[in-house]
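step 4 of 6: structure.
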Amino acid sequence: MDELRDEVQKVFRAVFDDDQLVLVDNMTADDVPGWDSLGHLNLVIALEKHFGIRFATAEISSLKEEGQNTGSLLALIKSKTSM
Amino acid sequence: MWVAAFSENASENNDKERNKHNMEKHTDPKINLRSMAECLLSAPPAKADDAFKEFVDVLRLAIAQGLYADAAAALGQAALPTLDYTRLQTLQRCRKQLRSKATGARQSVKLAILGSFTTKQLTDFIDLFLFAAGVEANIFEGEYGVFRQEIFDVQSEMRRFAPQVLFLATTWRDLAHHPNFASDAAEVSRVVEAEYGDWAALWQKAHESLGCQIIQNNFTLPPWRPFANHETRQAGSPTSYIALVNQTFARSAPSFVIIHDVDHLASLAGRWRWDDPRFYHNAKLPCDPECLVDYAHSVASIIAAQLGLAKKCLVLDLDNTLWGGVLGDDGLGGIRLGQGDPAGESFLEFQRYAQSLRRRGVLLAVCSKNQRETAWDAFKNHPEMALRQDDFSCFMANWNDKASNLRAIAQQLNIGLDSLVFIDDNPAERAIVRQLAPEVAVPELPEDVIGYIRTIEQHRYFQVLSVGAEDYQRTAFYQADQGRQHVQSTAVDIETFLRSLEMKARIGPINATTLERSVQLIHRSNQFNLTARRHSVAEVTRLLEDRAWITLTVSLSDRFGDNGLISVVLAHMSGEAFEIDTWLMSCRVLKRGVEQFVLNHLCSRASKCGLKVVRGEYIPTAKNALVRDHYAGLGFNQAGGDNAGHTYWELPMASQRQPLTTFIEETV
């Protein structure tokens, strides 16, 4: 999981132009400057490319809904990769 | 405990080392930018992530230090259609920091984008690719889905913006008419006509009120087919209907509308991939986000071509580029080229591709480290060679460095260095040319020659807006030039030379047959172009209807052949003066007396209209220093000017003006 977290963190840093960003489980869009709807789209696109995965239509939008955080994002990516 | 403390220390030291290393590397971002851009271009896939990150770090540093022009140049090298969506987004954020900074942009354009989907990302990428091509774009982005209102509403914001180019970013979802599945061909054509009528009315309205060039998407064929394999034979099927709408657009759209072939982009990407609807349903993106890169690049390349920035000449290396092996070592019989050998066949295929570009008007040149005679001999005597000597407009095979040879090629062909694309299998030569002649486009190439075609296509260097008969003959024009240069070197003096050419000129207004070629020259001529005003087809069409305007075109032939239409002048009457808005000429016919010939014609027109003075102006650009003294040379008096070198000129009309001497006979 740590390896996965590192990789996801790398993607976050690139998408949100922040080399200092540290990914913790309970982060939400409010905690990351630039994570608005456009930023969210960019994040999803970058994650799909980086991990070679595909989010379902509904997952793309549900990832930024109430109660979702980076922990649930990590879990979802984990379920789609072998990492 | 001790171990932990030690390892912590060690990692701290490592960090310090790394920082120190970074500091050293970043002390001169100017030098670093170039080498980082080079690393990025040539990085193998495994190292691409790191190379990109390092490049962006240096780029940001350069911007922070105010090195805007250097940062813009580096960004121009890096922003390629081969990057993915995420990297392009990063570069676009850097590009935004350079907005309204002095970046040395060569051109500017006012562009309106009206779409029926979320155009934000597409607009950003178009802006980035234009910026990379040296164009500062001022973009008006319409609200989502209101493109018809923006055009029909006289009060709309877009109307006030007054774009030079309007891009209608529409999709098949905007088709308003649909046939029944069971409709026969006649009924389907009626539906297509109704559909076309709606769009034509929209274009006409935009044209009348804005006078701008329009770029209109065609429609992508759906990947799903209710009629399965029978789809294309059923007139009322979705595929048949959309294909017919596209054909009608291509055949019938007026010349002020450029049809952007989105359907081709979808076919390149693969239709299921292109049509990935997940991002449409989530964010109203028109296609798979990764496909937006190619989409934006395609639109930007059309706009750049409209501004005269399309490339004109493909310069080719020889050994291991046009054939396998080294001619000097392996000999004529030893090189790999032609049927029967897989490698030989791929080189042949690449030659045929280059030849197809030549046939449609792209100039070909050779730039190779070789013995000239040996290389020339290969084109004459190798039986499998597809390219022949007369395919090349310029042949540089010698031992000089390639950057100097490329400069010589540009000079000999009378085109800018930035009109060249250089193809060389040797990565070191490519890197050196990028350093020493950064104006030349030098794409990174795959190892296998068979990938060269795709690379050249992918960069859309040779974008075409329209094709005239002249395009097919261009190489012949340049070859006739070589004949003329030969006469020039043997003639005793200039007068004898000019007489010996037996020049004949046809002069007349722009009309339906010369419109496209005239506008092409207006867009492409850089050097002999007094004002470099890039009037669109739409604008020129309007001038033709305006009685105050006079348009002139000159076609020149001589004993070596027909040069075709080589000069365009646009002027308008203002009070007692004749004001020259545009005066341009193809550099092929420099120093032949065409300017004097044109001025004689203008003066006699002005006298006939009872005008007292002919006025001209010179607006300096990066490339038109050639004509800085054009008006002085023709006897005009300077009537003003500014610090930027923009000058104004006047020629009073004497009652008995003596025409300037030329050796050109006027014909009809």
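step 5 of 6: annotate
 - Confidence is low (pLDDT under 50) at residues 1-24 of chain B.
 - Chain B has four domains: 16-102, 106-307, 315-441, 489-666.
step 6 of 6: archive
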